[in-house]
Amino acid sequence: MLNQEKLDRISFLANKKKREGLTAEETLEQKALREEYLTAFRKSFRKQLDNIEIVYKD
């Protein structure tokens, strides 16, 4: 999972993009951070799905 500092940076860049736009360097940073976030999210979600056990009532 991403640390709070990286999550805060993602939020900051998203807000800055809405307000005034991003530099080319910030755009690349945002893309990399988002990809890292999505990778961590998918891994966590997959782990949750793997732990689900379906039980049928007989």
From TrEMBL:
Q: Enumerate the subcellular locations listed in this protein's record, separating them with semicolons.
A: Cytoplasm
The keyword tRNA-binding is annotated on this UniProt entry: no
Matching Gene3D superfamilies, A to Z? Helix hairpin bin
Its primary localisation, in coarse terms, equals cytoplasm
| Pfam families found in the cross-reference section | DUF896
The entry's keywords: Cytoplasm
Instruction: Return the similarity comment.
Output: Belongs to the UPF0291 family.
Which PANTHER family does the UniProt entry name for this protein?
A: UPF0291 PROTEIN CBO2609/CLC_2481, UPF0291 PROTEIN YNZC
According to UniProt, the name of this protein is UPF0291 protein KHM83_11685
Q: Which organism is it from?
A: Fusibacter paucivorans
